Amino acid sequence: MLKFMSNAPTEPAPIALPQPVKLTPEIIRSTEKNISASLVRISTRSSFFATLALFARFQVSDKVPTAATDGRHIYVNPQFFGPLTAGQQDGLILHEVLHDALLHVTRRGSRDPKLWNVAADIVINGIILRDGWALPEGGLRDSSKEHLATEEVYDLLMRQAEKIEIEVEMQDLLAPGTGEPSDKESRGEGKGRNVDKTAKSKEEIEADWRNAMEQAKLMAKSSTWGKLPGGMAREMAHLQPSKLDWRSYLWRYLTHTPTDFSGFDRRFMYQGMYLEAIAGESVRVQVAVDTSGSIDNEAIVAFVSEVRAILEAYPHLKCDLCYIDTQIYGPYSLTRDSHLPPPEGGGGTDFRPFFEHIEKNTNIYETQVAIYLTDGWGDFPDHTPSIPTLWVVLPGGRDVEQFPFGETIRLTLGDG
Description:
Layout: E1 2-4, H1 25-45, H2 47-54, E2 57-60, E3 67-69, E4 73-76, H3 78-81, H4 86-101, H5 104-107, H6 113-130, H7 150-159, E5 164-166, H8 182-186, H9 195-222, H10 232-239, H11 246-254, E6 264-265, E7 275-276, E8 282-290, H12 297-313, E9 317-324, E10 328-334, H13 352-360, E11 366-374, E12 389-393, E13 407-410
Parallel strand pairs: 2-4, 8-9, 8-11, 11-12, 12-13
Antiparallel strand pairs: 1-5, 3-4, 6-7, 9-10
């Protein structure tokens, strides 16, 4: 449970925990039957969720107070699950399945396990409830944060550490592949003979669920009742790492003497960044994301991943983001701590409005570079812009040789 203080937006009601009861074959069979019935109901409402649920492995257990997952197995307490309404049972199953499918167990890295669990619950519960499903009473919700990715929610909670009191008595994210609470792993407990098994399981877990997500997306595309649930795209962008080395591409614009380390900026050494001190100079990246009708959801997710990587490449960067079809949506001024606005567009493709915009708003005291993420099919300006331009082009897009100006690189999708 996350207990918000008075100046926070949400305070969940406490969840009534069941009294321990010895598992019997009858209780196990009854719970397995309820889980199967829930999966059938889910399959009639959403091909996307149903496909993900097919990859889950369920176990009836009295070792968890409600339900939990280690990324591979989902453990369900029959005393908690049985009395729930059918709708609440479906929501609880989806909650744990989404933890698995969104790799919340393995995405945590070195973050605080309990706070990461809270952040993941906020995101998942928002997805489930906004999509019209139910959840058991007392589930955590924060409508001011649930539209964000889990990493973003975690960072916000970290900043609010002095304003909230965290009591995660029912932590449902366990250490990868072990069935043990992940905070034990962070304290060095639960290791020893399971170390090699856990490391191997983590790699297998991620591969299995990435495959499941790809199949679920294909089902959603091919089915009239399998739309991608709202809020998933932002989370899925964090599952797909950037394909480009933006530090290398942007380095030339940060300093005129990249091989001279006589005066590097010591503030960012802890991040592994040996940057030269730039006195009186700022670098602004003008980013355009093609949101025309020819750009599908997979491409949008890939573009968002690259935008995040651009923002995280260097602390010196300032970024103006525009979504563009035949008109500009934006610009949005961003830093590495900013939250990306949702994409807008869906019409035709015209590159000219973006370059007209940046030419009109050029600051002679700033070093600038334009980055356009697109499939390349659209109308170009008649004249070469004064700002250096980098085109990031989707597979199957316009040939590199057909771009009239700028540098062009090909972006790969999926595992390519």
